[in-house]
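Lab meeting prep.
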Amino acid sequence: MLKIGITGGIGSGKSTVARMFMQLGIPVYEADQRARWLQDHEPLKSQIIEAFGASYYVAGKLNRAQLAQLVFNNKEKLAELNALVHPAVASDYAHWLSAQNAPYILKEAAIIFETHSENQYDYIILVTAPTSLRIERVMQRDKLAAKEVEARMKNQWSDEEKKQKAHFVIENTTLEDTQNQVVALHNKILELCEGYRKN
């Protein structure tokens, strides 16, 4: 079973692309979504409270907007949060992976290259989109100002840097075109799976 990472900068639409692969029957581990779930449950919840204080939780749920304001403007705090969240997600992913049975799986993660975790995958798909479109998407989705979106982008590698390390690139501008790219890539990966099984 091939392990394939799918990544892309904030607003690139990697979740939309991942869902297209799901519709083709491919299991997808959504690291960001699972991280959110884990942050609201033990033992990660207690670890975050110990590091950042109980005020970041409201009615038992992490106030992500408040914590994001702190960490996205403070690299040390961001590193501290990542040092708690990443091991929890890694353990959760390993448990999920052991239950899968498919030619290949996808793990959707925002910061594969930034965390130097590209060696965990057989291949990596990069989802890209023009910067202006990405900013617009995140402003609409998260109700943020353009400056706030740009601040988050600064914590991620540029598409140009990522393209040098990715095996496949999907340019996500229109849904129809993206869908066509996904189907073509899915067929290509199935061929790779066949070769992988023969070796």
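Slide two material, second protein:
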Amino acid sequence: MPLKEQALSLCSGLTARAKRAGAVNTLIRHGDRWDGDNTDGIGLVHDLTERRRLDLRGRRVLMLGAGGAARGVAPALLDAGIAELWIVNRTPEKADALSDALGEPGRVHTRYVEDLAQLGAFDMLVNATSAGRGDGGLNLPFSLATSRSLAVDLSYGEAAISFLAWAGAAGCEHRFDGLGMLVEQAAESFAIWHGKRPDTDAVYDALSARADTLLTAD
């Protein structure tokens, strides 16, 4: 972050999911050339459906942001069976570009930030913006969420605190940062490089404990 879209332009070849995402987070060397893949989306879905045992099918999803992180996870969410994906970005043109790239106008919609209060409640909210990384937080209406809504920040640690705090105040029962996604996408990349997917539970538990210790110390 934030070079996933630029990385794509430097690759000689791309996997189907990297082409669909329009962003690369994994580089594979073949002789004197570099090919690109994107494991973000499958990492997120694996964390939510396998580790958290959550069913994503039929959910109405709000995606905040349209950069490389959003591009990486949006196709995987659609493949996981969500009903609708609504994309809101501070630069509307980027949201429209992502929607067009996904190629599913019946399921994917874009709106302006100013429209948020009129969009109703969502079953899942995904923060794919850099808000929380030093450039200010998000000013979101509580009407976007209910107690049954799932809130996910693709960032982790301190960068995810403000969005997850908002989700808690909005009453969301399930709130997760991107640490699980980080671990799972890395495991997918490892499998591409070495032909074997490592067991991620121990890694996630160790990193989660470490993150809790650091936040408590702060």
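Talking points for slide two:
The mean pLDDT is 92.
Residues 41-176 form a domain with the Rossmann fold fold (CATH 3.40.50.720).
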